Amino acid sequence: MRILALALWLILFVVLFGFAVSNTTPAELHLYGIVWQAPLIALLLVFFIVGVAFGFLAMLPAWFRLRMEVRRLRKARRESPSAQAPSVAPTQAAPDSIQSVAQGARNTS
């Protein structure tokens, strides 16, 4: 599975690198009377980074709210003795029941 994931990342890198190399022609950006000339891939990269930054900023309130909720729940769990699960030792299966299950599996196949 790791090899497959590595192969997919490598393919994605090669495709994006090829896209970057093929889009080096200068492009003009007109914004409020300011003209900015840069390679097209540089403009795309700048706007992608700005979009990621806005997405991260939009996510921050929910992230902090969830962190506070987790902190509150952990504190409530520590303070409440009834919230903790009782420690019960696992029961051992009887050898007879294991034998009957094994016999049933052999008879069905």
Notable features of this structure?
single chain; mainly alpha; flat; 3 helices; two-stranded antiparallel ribbon; 69% helix
Question: How are the SSEs placed, and which strands pair?
Answer:
Elements: H1 2-22, E1 26-31, E2 34-39, H2 40-79, H3 95-108
Antiparallel strand pairs: 1-2
What does this entry look like structurally?
- The structure is a single chain.
- This protein is flat.
- It has helices at residues 2-22, 40-79, 95-108; strands at residues 26-31, 34-39.
- It contains three helices and two strands.
- It starts with a helix and ends with a helix.
- The model has no long low-confidence stretch (mean pLDDT 83).
- It has a domain at 7-78.
- Helix content is 69%, strand content 11%.
- The chain is mostly helical and 109 residues long.
- The chain has a two-stranded antiparallel ribbon with strand order 1-2.
Quick overview:
This protein is mainly alpha-helical.
- Give the count of helical stretches: 3
The helix content, as a percent range, equals 55-70%
From N to C, what is the helix and strand string? Answer: HEEHH
Radius of gyration using CA atoms only: 30 Å
Give the termini distance in whole angstroms: 32 Å
* Average of per-residue pLDDT values: 83
| Topology, number of strands | 2
Strand percentage lies at 5-15%
The computed structural class is: mainly alpha
**Uncertain ranges:** none
What general form does the structure show? flat
Question: Main β-sheet, in a few words?
Answer: 2 strands, antiparallel
Main β-sheet, spatial strand arrangement: 1-2
